[in-house]
Amino acid sequence: MNKDLLVYIVVASIKIFLVFSAVQIMIISMIWLERKIMAHMQVRLGPMRVGPHGLLQPIADGIKLLFKEDIIPQKANKLLFLLAPVMTLVPALITFAVIPFGDKVKILGHSVNLVITDINVGFLYIFAVSSLGIYGIVMAGWASNNKYSLLGGIRSSAQMISYELPLGLSLIGVVMLTSSLSLVDVVNAQAKLWNIIIQPIGFFVYATSAIAEVNRCPFDLPEAESELVAGYHTEYSSMKFAMFFMAEYANMITVSAIAVTFFLGGWHGPFLPPVVWFMLKLSACLFFFIWIRSTYPRLRYDQLMHFSWKFLLPLSLFNILITGLIMVLKG
Amino acid sequence: MIQYLPILILFIIAAGFAITNIGLSAVLGRRKPTAEKLSPYECGIDPVGTARERFSVKFYLIAMIFVIFDIEVVFLYPWAVAFKELKLFGFIEMLIFVGILLVCYLYIWKRGGLEWD
Amino acid sequence: MEAYLFYIMAAVSVTAAVYLVFEKNPVFSALYLIQTMVCIAVLYILLEAQFIAAVQIIVYAGAIMVLFLFVIMLLNLNIKEETKNALPFQKIPAIFMGIVLFTAICAVIKSKLLQGKQGEYTTAYVNSVGNTKLIGNLLFTDYLLPFEITSILLFVAAIGAIMLAKRKL
Questions:
Q1: First-last CA distance in chain B
Q2: Residues 6+ positions from C42 with CB-CB distance below 8 Å
Q3: Considering only alpha carbons, which residue of chain B is nearest residue C70?
Q4: Which domain holds residue A285?
Q5: Which residue among C55, C59, C70 places its CB closest to the CB of B59?
Q6: Closest to C131 (Cβ–Cβ): which among A121, A132, A154?
Q7: Hey, is the C-beta of C54 within 8 angstroms of any chain A C-beta?
Q8: Do the domain assignments include residue A10?
Q9: pLDDT for C129-139, tens place per residue?
């Protein structure tokens, strides 16, 4: 093994370690923040008992879930029942590999790009990985041997595939402007002007379908408590239950990071260091998620499907045609 | 090629993390299974019939339409990347392609393929 | 290292394919098929065909397999029903055909048919321009007609799906 390769692997491992821990910390703090922000929006206090202002609540929750009884319902398909949370969490965690979170920095004479890996099909990688996330949910629903779970799983997968189309189409406008599928190129192209200004329709379609893609309110039909108990994770308990939640938060962070990368200028910004800018924009997107959740009521399932197929899909195609037309006219 | 190595490392770490979680909860959690506890949740009553029931054909239809449009989207990726070089020619080409699929879309709509009644 | 990765992925995908055939439960079969497809995508990456690898996962593993799973769950195939329908007299012709196919594949691999000349697109050139961009440039100029015909094929598929799923037309 030559020296360059070794350096590459070591640097990559350090970056992976940093990003992975940062995501874990963000997931843990999101659990607290979501409850706290929601509470304050509803004029409540939220968690207050564990630590100052309930700061240690996520840790208490984690310990509680770890020591909870591990229940596998009878007649459930044991292997798939155990595999489903893994199949949901892993795709959610590995999407971060292509998201640039800072500018090039010099460390010990080495120029290090602050992205785990810059592949020239980064954009396609994200979609490939996120399209595999569906199986965990379908399998959780099917393996549980519970009617609510099956309905939740099927609903959820139908919703995810319906919103995957507008999600993919909404970013094509940005790809046309950048002529590259590498996320580093996409960020570099936004040094002067953020894409949200050139692609407002694209951003609108992306933001809406991203919320639906991660099954968040107002599109949280799969886990609609009032009709499906908890959807595909009705039968899950202990850490396996927690993993579905980790996956949901990880997915939220991922789609927010993609929104920042494609539309909000990535790590570009004045005065502050790039990484700080990236984190600020990411936090703003995550706050938006919580804000939406405490503002809107849940949609009905037929409304949800109609909204994607009859409104977002044509709108995103229209956006691509308009972008193409303007680019052709401008030469 | 070498750029894909970090993805492999990340995948191994993520999978290891997930499996450790499953393992930990299996080891740490105490187990006192009873017949009641292990029966699937159905609002308190004993489960009726089988859980793996057949479901509406509409889901199949949605999946089928999704496959069709997903292939369309896949064609749009290389087109979008090469668009600056293809210019007007590429635009008209894609207009025809999307136009045909738009007719297809309207056909599905008119036939009620997108309805959830 | 690439060779090792190739052998590992090839072994995994062939094993998954074997399990896919012998598995009694159709849902597991579908999962093994997904595994095979993901392995094939990795093989494409080893061949420096990143775009095809991504499409392999997005379309096959991500879209078509969701359809498969839906159909399997929709029909709710039981293990009993499935084994009952197997036609016993298929076995002998099937084995015969399998042997013929296997010999044919071996013959093609052994012959010089697959060893063409190296084209103008070397790996270094493809990587410098970008795999996807090059495919875009070729697909939308030289291979224009097949591309446009694809849209009509997709249209036909849509008509078929509607006809199958709708009771009243």
A1: 49
A2: C5, C9, C53
A3: B60
A4: 3-42+73-330
A5: C70
A6: A121
A7: yes
A8: yes
A9: 778 888 888 88
What whole-number distance in Å separates Cα of residue C78 and Cα of residue C84?
Answer: 10
Contacts of A67 in chain B (CB under 8 A): 28-30
CB distance from B110 to chain C under 8 Å? no
Please give the Cα distance from A161 to A155 (Å, whole number): 10
Residue A83, in any domain of the structure: yes
pLDDT, tens only, A155-182 = 888 888 888 899 989 999 898 888 888 8
Cα–Cα distance for residue pair A291/A272, rounded to 1 Å:
26
Residue of C nearest to B114 (CA): C162
Strand partners, A112: A105
* Fold entry, domain B2-110: Methane Monooxygenase Hydroxylase; Chain G, domain 1 (1.20.58)
CA angle C36, A154, C39 (to 5 degrees): 10
Domain count, chain A: 1
What's the ipTM?
0.87
| Per-position b or e across C73-99, b if 16+ CB within 10 A of its CB | bbeebeeeeeeeeeeeeeeeeeeeeee
Per-residue pLDDT tens over the stretch A216-234: 777 776 666 666 666 777 7
Rounded distance, CA A55 to CA A63, Å?
Answer: 14
pLDDT in tens, A71-129: 787 777 888 888 888 988 999 899 888 888 888 777 777 777 778 888 888 888 888 88
Show residues of chain A in contact with B53, CB under 8 Å: 147, 150
